[in-house]
Amino acid sequence: NGELFEREKFDLKKEFGLDSFERFCWMCILSGCDYLENITGIGLVKAKKVMSRTQISNIDLILKQLPQNLGKLNLRVTDDYITGFKRAHLAFLHQIVYDPIQRIQMPLNPLPDDVDREHLKYAGQLDETPLAFQHAIGNLNVKTKCIVDKFNPSQWKYRSPVSSSSSSSSVIPGHLKSIWSKEYTSRSEPFSLTSTPMSRKKIS
């Protein structure tokens, strides 16, 4: 089970007092993330305080003013930390992901004209070989390249999500099939937590 958070429906102003998704990302990075450890003494509460109170849009200046804004004049914000912070932000925006529909690797978001892929190697490198697909479906260990499974999506017997009381001839909509299935299709209408894509029948 999982909980869905839709960026478009996320009220940053109400929840965090932030005026942009960029500041939300900055808040998360400042509190500590996979790409950058937090500065000692700064967690989510202090990161939220900083990002929600400043109107400055220059992240270099925001970070340099942390000691004054937090009332900790002995706090050290090094140039290396600022560089790492900006790299972490770029990594979140443009990390290499695998598109299961096109079955290729690509940046999560298109690269801006002023960003060179060669300078973003820390966000992952494109693998245009069949290994990328094997990594994506979990057959290879990403680091060692050793085979750990032999899963083949084209031979997988997809089990119908329709209840056992439904007709065996029911057609499964394409968007309810596995995303690895060649018959998978994108949902024609936006997903809604209140929608019921298939009728639910009571199982006796």
Q: How would you classify the quaternary structure?
A: single chain
Stretches with pLDDT under 50, minimum 5 residues: 195-204
- CATH architectural name of the largest domain: Orthogonal Bundle
Total number of helices: 7
Name the average pLDDT: 83
Residue share in helix: 25-40%
Distance between the termini: 24 Å
Kindly report the spatial arrangement of strands forming the biggest sheet.
1-2
Could you say what the CATH topology of the largest domain is called? DNA polymerase, domain 1
Question: What class, by secondary structure content?
Answer: mainly alpha
Radius of gyration: 22 Å
Whole-number count of domains = 2
Number of strands: 2
Family: Belongs to the XPG/RAD2 endonuclease family. EXO1 subfamily.
Function: 5'->3' double-stranded DNA exonuclease which may also possess a cryptic 3'->5' double-stranded DNA exonuclease activity. Functions in DNA mismatch repair.
Subcellular location: Nucleus
EC number: 3.1.-.-
What does this molecule look like?
The radius of gyration is 22 Å and the shape is elongated. The chain has helices at residues 12-16, 21-30, 44-53, 59-64, 66-70, 79-94, 131-136, and strands at residues 96-99, 104-107. The chain folds into 2 domains: 7-92, 5' to 3' exonuclease, C-terminal subdomain (DNA polymerase, domain 1, Orthogonal Bundle); 96-157, no CATH class. The chain has a two-stranded antiparallel sheet. With 204 residues, it is mostly helical. Helix content is 28%, strand content 4%. Helix 2 runs antiparallel to helix 3 (44-53) and helix 2 crosses helix 6. One of its GO terms (molecular function) is metal ion binding. InterPro entries: 5-3_exonuclease_C_sf, HhH2, XPG/Rad2. Its cofactor is Mg(2+). Residues 187-198 have a biased composition (Polar residues).
